[in-house]
Amino acid sequence: MTKTIIPIRPPWKGTMTARERFNRQMHFQSVDRCFNMEFGYWNENFQEWPLFRDNGITNNHEADLFFSFDPIATIGGNWFMAPAFESREVERRGDKRILINGDGLYAEVPIDGHDTIPHYIKSSIVTPEDWAKVKEERFDVRNPARIIDVASLKAQHPDDRDYPLGIDCGSMIGRIRDMLTFEGLAYACYDYPEMVEDMVETVCQLVEFSLDQLLPHFQFDFASGWEDICFKNGPIVSVPFFRDVVTPRYKRIHKKLQAYGIDIWYTDCDGDVRPILPYMMEGGINCLFPFEVNGCAHPGELLDQYEGRLRIMGGVDKIQLGAGKEAIKAYLESLEKYVARGGYIPFCDHRCPPNVKPEDYLYYLDLKEKMFGMQG
């Protein structure tokens, strides 16, 4: 049974479809008003915000409907592990449980079950021999799980849809980081660089297999990716590694996208992307998402530096959202000229945290509509 969501606010007024608006805004063309979206909320928000709890809103999809945001969707294939590792308990040590997760990572968690970040002990992949075994068992392109049900997706996303549709271009190194751990990737790049490059190449081939199945059958409006490989001090891989190993694979993917007229490609990468941004752009990525301010910079800094070439989705400082109405207003005012210029869609620079007061969040949504919605 489908759950009925009763919106708390009407959609922003407009004269364009969400698809027209997104495409024009991302190409620096005039629009009726700004594309209206948000990236979502911490799980705690759904438990702690009366706004959500009292209205039965339990996840980000429901929240999008609740706030009547502009619709946007992305589809893709299975380009990573297939099958994943079986998630299970391996052993118990005192007051700790040792678990293995779907990426093959061994983690230590408390037996009492209180909520905490898992302490990862080791990866299933350390040496080239480990990788050869996992590659054979879990990265075979011939696995039937990699065949996409195109007909079903076509029925869900017809050509005459009124919302933007993206194609998932996967992750060349971010998911490998997940599989090796932060420390494991750092060591592997030094100890076994050929192994890491083979991992990148393997994932690239699986992404290409997915793209080849989907690209001929849809009129995509954008491409998306996920490369969560930066933190506040920059990327966790060296710039030469990114330039020489990752960027060439981006170029291969970009060539496929270009052949089908896709010229907007964003990647989700937290932290300070500035050291590797020139090589992202050289590879074809021209949009950053959700652009964390405190880990990088005010979005205007990069939008000015790469004016007319770079787009940003996100970049509304979550710290300012939690600092009250005056701070929210001042920050949104600092974004006005970039929204007006085009190529920039403002929303919280990651999932909105629960320390933001619900009444301040509603003020933020109201002010955003007043400033960036349709005038008159």
Describe the structure.
The structure is a single chain. β3 and β4 form a beta hairpin. α8 (182-191) crosses α9 (193-214) and α9 runs parallel beside α10. 37% of the residues are buried. It is globular, with a radius of gyration of 21 Å. The model has no long low-confidence stretch (mean pLDDT 96). It starts with 17 loop residues before the first helix and ends with a helix. With 376 residues, it is of the alpha/beta class. The longest helix has 22 residues, at 193-214. The chain folds into two domains: 18-79 and 124-372, TIM Barrel (Alpha-Beta Barrel); 86-123, no CATH class. The protein has helices spanning 18-26, 43-48, 50-53, 60-66, 128-138, 150-156, 174-180, 182-191, 193-214, 239-259, 277-283, 299-305, 318-321, 325-333, 336-341, 358-372, and strands at 73-75, 88-93, 96-100, 105-110, 119-123, 165-168, 222-226, 230-231, 234-235, 265-268, 287-289, 311-313, 344-345. It has 16 helices and 13 strands. The strands form three sheets. A seven-stranded parallel sheet has the order 1-6-7-10-11-12-13, sandwiched between helices.
